[in-house]
Amino acid sequence: MRTSCRFAVAVHVLAVLAYREGEAVSSSRLAASVNTNPVVIRRLLLLLQTAGFIETRKGAGSGSRLSREPTKISLAEIYRAVETDEPFASHSKRPNQACPVGHCIQAELEKVFASAEAALQEELAKTNLAKILKSVHVYCSAPNKDLR
Amino acid sequence: MRTSCRFAVAVHVLAVLAYREGEAVSSSRLAASVNTNPVVIRRLLLLLQTAGFIETRKGAGSGSRLSREPTKISLAEIYRAVETDEPFASHSKRPNQACPVGHCIQAELEKVFASAEAALQEELAKTNLAKILKSVHVYCSAPNKDLR
DNA sequence: TCTTATGTAACTCTACGCGTTACATTTGTC
DNA sequence: GACAAATGTAACGCGTAGAGTTACATAAGA
After folding, report:
1. Which of B5, B35, B120 is closest, CB to CB, to A94?
2. Which pLDDT value is given to residue A139?
3. What is the mean pLDDT of residues A83-109?
4. Do A119 and B118 touch (CB under 8 A)?
5. Is residue B101 part of a domain?
6. Which of A68, A98, A132, B64 has the CA that lies 20 to 30 A from B53?
7. What number is the average pLDDT over the span A108-134?
């Protein structure tokens, strides 16, 4: 199976930015929250910029902040922004076209893959960043504690 | 993303067995249709045996055949039989528990992942092997031609 | 006994994601 | 202008996983 944690980290990062409500957060601080390397975060931030979720500025005291309301960012959009491949992969080599099944199986599978992928994204679209953030607030009784 | 083509190949193999309607098919012939190595097929056949989709016998003239009607084999079952990992992966390292977001983001993500995975499988459950086979027949005007 | 086929181990090749270091560049501050 | 802080980005190493391949022991029918 595909096993990239980009989607998980992307939601995490955006949740932190939403939690900080417009304050600029550096890649180092985001990396400290995710527990990874700042460069990994910066690579991800580029994708989130392209998708229009965040703005990033260079220089001292700068960093990234949300450029869209958390209610306007669905998990499906985040998924599409950072996940390049589809969850399904077809044959690595072309099936034998002389076999009736091999001849048309890929076309059939493509339809199945497409509908499954659509169902997955529709489910993700039901949740947005604000909902995720709400859960964070529920679990976190002391929201003003120093986070890194 | 996860990118194993096991699911695609599994559907392909089962479709060939369904097409052959109970006739024993060797891993070599299945491999020829999929266009891969027989050992790759055999490894997959073991999973399909465990799932109860097929029976396999050794010896001359033997091979695998379906042990369940194509209408009784849904794509969701095939998916679960051969795909070990989930389409989503969480953080590679544990998030910073001192951060409010890091502290509870994984639990929230698990819920999201579970519902998305469920939606995906529900969509796959709408299709079964018989439907796939039907499409093959539609496309294939000469079903008795020599297939390998 | 011979042939055919599976089960399975062991190995290589390849691709990819993550992590890391390094550095040029930009931007704000003193 | 000098300095500090931050991003953008290249380059590399590491670990993992799937696919493909070879080889061989074992089973089963002819």
Report:
1. B35
2. 61
3. 90
4. no
5. no
6. A98
7. 96
Tally of domains within chain B: 1
pLDDT number for residue B91: 84
Instruction: Give B8's contacts in chain A (Cβ within 8 Å).
Output: 88-91, 106, 109
Mean pLDDT in residue range A125-140: 87
pLDDT of residue A147: 43
What pLDDT score was predicted for residue B147?
A: 42
Q: B97-131 as b/e, with b when 16 or more CB fall inside 10 Å?
A: eebbbbbbbeebbeebbeebbebbbebbeebbbee
Cα of A76 to nearest chain B Cα, Å = 10
**Is the pLDDT at B3 greater than 90, yes or no?**
no
C-alpha to C-alpha distance for A133 and A135, rounded to whole angstroms:
5
CATH number reported for the structural domain that contains residue B13 in this entry = 1.10.10.10
**Percentage, residues of chain A above pLDDT 90:** 77
Share of chain B above pLDDT 70, in %: 91
Mean pLDDT in residue range A53-70 = 96
Q: How far is A122 from chain B (nearest CA, A)?
A: 8
Q: Å from B44 (CA) to D25 (C1')?
A: 20
Q: Is residue B111, in this structure, part of any structural domain at all?
A: no
Compute the count of residue pairs across chains A and B with CB atoms less than 8 Å apart: 217
Model ipTM value = 0.88
Using the Cβ of B139 and the Cβ atoms of chain A, whether some distance falls under 8 Å is answered with yes
Amino acid at B30: L
Domain hosting A49: range is 6-86+128-139
Nucleotide nearest to B62 (CA to C1'): C5
B50 is a domain residue: yes
